[in-house]
Amino acid sequence: MDIKLKIFCTVAETKSFTKTSQIVHLSQPAVSLQIQSLEEFFETKLFDKTGKQVNLTAAGKILYEHAIHIMGHYNEVLKEISKLTGMMKGAVALGASTTLGNYILPYIITDFKRIHPKIKIKMRIGNTERIEDLMQSGFVDFGIVEGRTSRSNTKSEKVISDQLTLIVHPKHPLTRKRIVSVLDLTREPFILREQGSGTRQQIEKFLNQHGLKIQDLHVALVMGSTESIKASVEAGTGIAILSKWAVRKEVEDGRLKTVKLREGGIPRDLSLIYSKKHHLSHADKELILFIKNYVYDNF
């Protein structure tokens, strides 16, 4: 019933079966079948469809209100049992934006599991916008993303800091310059992340601070992953700006080179985000505390 309730809540919040199917990675017919199963169980309609938008019926509103509480009560049960047994158990579903999910959190989770082997952890990786969608729909308990959320129903707090850096091919002409201006970026083929990426948002902010826009760049490629951007820069397709953590190995191996910008580095916050609607479990809170107190000097 848990997955059905989560899908039901997602449809209620997005008012769309199509949007829900994108968030939960199920086909639209599969989402419809889950809702149909709930309607058959309660023997009443839960949604009314008006055009492309769906709205809760009176019965649907009652179920939605209680579904939020049911998921919260389930977390409290896990907390009480953990206290009784002395062994912290449960499951954590977290979402992470690309940099954190691929280059930082795997090490942190490994260390956490040494202390709490009974806690099961499931991590979903996506751009910042997708992680926010998954969290609001209840498919992840909380997220660690680049930047801070602008959504009114989401809380955020800084966890750690990151630095974005300009990367080029080792034989690129820019490597012969002692320092590079932001204007030099507009003269080179540039490789960007997709819309909704926290890295892209930070690049846009940096450009705006210096009187430029994304449109002023000669965008050669827009790519959906950090790995594909690194491979393209390594192949000599263009230049890019990525997290220092994401390019650490390639720079150490000599496959990529970082170049300093006259205007300074591009700092950004990596933030914890969580929904005001959903309750964090005891296991969630323990992992969050571990992430906050982790020693990041090795990264």
Q: Based on DSSP secondary structure assignment, what is the total number of beta strands?
A: 11
- Protein structure class: alpha/beta
Enumerate the spans where pLDDT stays under 50 for 5 or more consecutive residues: none
Give the second-level CATH assignment, the architecture of the domain at 163-269: 3-Layer(aba) Sandwich
| Fraction of residues in H or I helices | 40-55%
CATH class (first level) name of the domain at 163-269: Alpha Beta
Largest sheet: 7 strands, mixed
Structural description of this entry:
This protein has 299 residues and is α/β, with parallel strands linked by helices. Among the domains are: 1-86, Orthogonal Bundle (Arc Repressor Mutant, subunit A); 163-269, D-Maltodextrin-Binding Protein, domain 2 (3-Layer(aba) Sandwich). The protein contains 12 helices and 11 strands. Helix 1 packs across helix 3 (28-42) and helix 1 crosses helix 4 (58-85).
